[in-house]
Amino acid sequence: xxxxxxxxxxxxxxxxxxxxxxxxxxxxxxxxxxxxxxDEYVVAFDLPGVTADAIDIDVERNMLTVKAERRPVxxxxxxxxxxxxxxxxxxxxxxxxxxxxxxxHIEADYDTGVLTLRIxxxxxxxxxxxxxxxxxxxxxxxx
Length: 143
Hints:
Blueprint: H1 7-19, E1 28-29, E2 32-37, E3 40-46, E4 55-60, E5 63-70, E6 89-96, E7 107-111, E8 114-120
Parallel strand pairs: 1-6
Antiparallel strand pairs: 2-3, 3-8, 4-5, 5-6, 7-8
C-alpha cells in the first residue's frame, strides 16, 4: 500500500493542536467565496457541522461580522476516539462592505453547511441614464 504524506498538512494539524480550538476572544478563520451575481453580491461561508442557532451575523456601518461555533458531539462513555481532525471551537470572519451595498436588506440562508449571504447593490450605486434637456432659447438676465 502506498501512503502519501503532506508535510504542510501535518504542520497545520500540529499548529491547530498546539493553539487549541478558537475561542470567542481568539476565533479561527472560516473559508469563504464572494462574487457578484446580477444586482447583488453573494458571500458563501463553509460551516460544516455548525447548527444554524450557533451562527451570529452582525452589521455595523459597513463592517460585516460572521461568527459560528462548532461544538463537540456528545458521545457515550464507552466511546474511545481514534482520530479527530475536524476543528471545534469558534470561527469568525469580518468583511468591509462597500458603501454601494444596501446593508439594510441582507438576506441569509443556511443549507447543508453553507451560509449564504445576499447583499443587494444600493439603488444609488446602480448605473442610470441621465436625460438631457433641450433649451427653448436664450434667457436674458436683467439687473
